[in-house]
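Milestone M4 deliverable, item 7.
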Amino acid sequence: MKFVDEVSIFVKAGDGGNGMMSFRREKFIEKGGPNGGDGGDGGSVYLEADENLNTLVDYRYTRRFNAQNGQKGGSTDCTGAKGEDLVLPVPVGTTIIDAATQEIMGDLTKPGQRLLVAQGGWHGLGNTRFKSSTNRAPRQTTPGKPGDARDLKLELKVLADVGLLGLPNAGKSTFIRSVSAAKPKVADYPFTTLVPNLGVVSVGRYKSFVIADIPGLIEGAAEGAGLGIRFLKHLARTRLLLHLVDMAPLDGSDPADAAEVILHELERFSPALTQRDRWLVLNKADQLLEDEREQRVRQVVERLDWKGPVFVISALESEGTEALSQAIMRYLDERTVRIAEEPDYAEALAELDRQIEDEARARLQELDDQRALRRAGVKAADEVEDDDFDDDDDDEGGAEIIYVR
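Output delivered:
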């Protein structure tokens, strides 16, 4: 299934039904009376998080959604039927944004969570409502109110406990295949991973975590180069980042240089994201002899001045991956306990999450604006060229054009 993480849709709630104007006309009853019923309320539009979905592809081609209108009121004081609500399923991790105001309407992060995005119109009143001691035969009704209509932007950020960082061919897909049942594409050329892949890593009975394989970043990703800018945002909701580095690059480059490229792109995209807990994972250890391996590890750690945990693994040979998985599980368990027991720690993490979300959204909006300006500039330049050409044709006092053969 094609992975789609951003779509724009239009939703329209149902209009309320009109009130009915009606009078009783019954045998043996001399004086009837008003008996027009109210209309029905229009149906509302909701978005609901569905754990069985992992992409927004269903909304790529069908983009207009309308809830049912309320029915008109009936005679004999019958109320019109209410319009059915429209519930649109979206993947867990979807953010809903009002396209007109850029306001975040909600964030669906739990299965079954539901958000009202368009309120159905209020019903109209029948003439029975206006009966009084001085107005025995009212001929007044009210129409139903129109339902809300909105243009929405849906953004999906995958929810994972652990996110994998690294340049193309750092071994991220091989690692996720080694520790989980996920089967992302693996090949010996860059950009084999074009969409995020999720894998569930089981480390014991009732103990597991979700790991996300983010497509490889390149230098300039934070400026829109390559695929990185599309997927950097998915790192915003991870709890831990694993920075995978190829210890033995085929081109003979310095592994520390590769690590610095990723750190630079994280800083450019969201400075707050660099404050997320991050572990250094040196991969492809099987490509080096033991002495070379130890020397390479020391060089990378010293060059980066790395203070956090460092793991040396071979994803291809599953060497060191079990110990790494166990360490991740312990970290996540301890983090959960600290959040429950230390309010200050929990608030600091929540504030960091908000800051990362805000910076990521601002960066993505900035790049969208830049692209829009470039498109507008190209269009304006084309129009200027067309106008200049037309002016030359219409200017009778211009220079004479002589064609030399």
